Amino acid sequence: MSRRPSDWNPEFAHITRVFPRRLEEMMGSMTFTQLSLLSGVSVGTLTNWRHGRTIPDLCCLYSVCTVLDASIDWIIGLDEPQQVASDTQPSASDTQPAEKNES
How far apart are CA 88 and CA 11, in angstroms? Predict the structure, then answer.
């Protein structure tokens, strides 16, 4: 069953809390203009990410992480625990292949 956009609130909140801080950490002394020129992501988009108004799409995130030499998992906070409703997460039986019976 697919999830509605409103079901993504916990993930959105987590990313908008972690991502801006880590983006600035990886940028160091680089400006948004410099990052924009190197990554192809507009300054306006980078500013929206910084203020938690929007989250990056995958292609833009990939480009920025490539420029900053950062892991996508790390920069969006997959290394930190988050509270997500258990009924929206797949169970282990949904994600693991069934064991084969060998005869």
Answer: 11
